[in-house]
Structure formats: structure tokens, C-alpha cells
Amino acid sequence: MQIPPSVIVNADDIGLRPSVNKAILYSYQQGCINSTSFLTNMDCFDETIDFIHSNPAIINIGLHGNFAEGKPVSNFKYPEFLDADGNWNLSKTGKITQLLSKDIKAAFAAELNAQMEKALGAKINITHVDSHLHLHTLPSFYSMYIDLAKRHKLKLRLAQTYREGSYPKFLYRKFLNSKIKANHIAHSDYFETVDKFLSFGDQHPAGKTEIMVHPDFDADGKIFDHVDGTSMEYWVAYLRG
């Protein structure tokens, strides 16, 4: 298999659970992916660190900033964004549309920085930044991701670059991407799903394209995409011609 040189194929969610880690390594070994993003706040962090250091095939590792799942790694003092067990409450963090107070925004920024420092402290060479469930594209969060990427001289994932759904959402994503590009930290020229990328056939616009997949193994040991079920299958079929 040969990934086109203009394509970044990022496997989100290394660190989510052991089966995902193994599926991501397998995908590297098979030539299906050339990048991944690390969830540093999940329970299998230590196991994942050993796994990464033991497998040099795992390269181009990004921070998968996470305000959506698992527990904060910092001393986060705003329980209204957490559930009863102290985990991130996605029904709250994933729907933040109002402006956060200065103190709350600072707490989220400190948490994002703590997640980065946790990876760096474990000798992981972080090359880019994105987020779990795209929360870095929310109005209250995007500036802290831009600041983090600039501070560490890293690239940041764009918001979706094609129109799907409402026109106001498309315009907002264009606005956000203009901010990222103006800071010279864009990880690519386009950010798309596998389906969208394949829909262009041989007519994809010139430039660097990032697509995301979410490898895992099912109960029968078959690799699949644990978010949409089919992206890995379609991507592998494309690479095999």
C-alpha cells in the first residue's frame, strides 16, 4: 500500500484503549496511516507510553486534546463541566456556545497545557495538535489551541473544509480556518473524511489533505473504524486499488 504523498492519514485516539493501540500499530505496519493523535488523559496512559516507545513504526504523533472523555489531568475546579464520577461531561463541554468567563477559560487552557506536558514529560515527540470530537473548533476553545500550537511550534488541524449541513456552520468553519492559516500553523490545506476525499476521485484540488480514521479491532479480530464503522474498510480498499 502507498499513501499519496499529499495525504496525511491520521489515526485519532491512540491511548483510548489497548485494542485501539494495537489496531493503530497494525495500520502503520500495513501502510494505511502515517500519523496518529494521542489521548493523554485516559486510564491506559502508562501502557500506551510503553507501547509507543516499543514500536518505532508509530511516528508523527499529535496531541489529541480531550475535554470530551475521561478525567482531567490538571486540578480542574469547575465541576459543572464534569459528571458525578469526575469525568468530562460531553453534554456540557461539547455544547459550549457562550463565552466562558476569563477564569473558566484559563482553567481549560491549563488543562490543555497539562495534557501536552504529560506527553512531553513521557518523552513523546509531539508534532501536531488536534482534538477529541473536534472540540477545538468550538468558539470558546479554538484560541487556546492556536496559542498552544504556536507556543510549541506545532501544526493544528483545520475544521472541516467542505460544506455539509447548514451554510452558517460552513461559514464559521471558513472563519476558523482563516484564523489557523493566518497564524501559519495549519496542518494541511484541507481536512476531510475518507468518504469526502474518495468522492473526488482523481479530481481532488491540489494541496495537502488530512483525513482521519479511527482504527480498532472488532470481536472477530477484523479492523474497522470505531466511529463510523466503514472508513477503514473504504480506505484500505482505495489503497489496494
UniProtKB/TrEMBL annotation:
UniProt cross-references to InterPro entries, sorted A to Z: Glyco_hydro/deAcase_b/a-brl, YdjC-like
UniProt key word Metal-binding: yes
One Pfam family from the record: YdjC
Domain of life, source organism: Bacteria
Keywords: Carbohydrate metabolism, Hydrolase, Magnesium, Metal-binding
Ligase recorded as keyword: no
Cofactor field: Mg(2+)
Name the UniProt record assigns to this protein: Carbohydrate deacetylase
Species this protein is from: Mucilaginibacter ximonensis
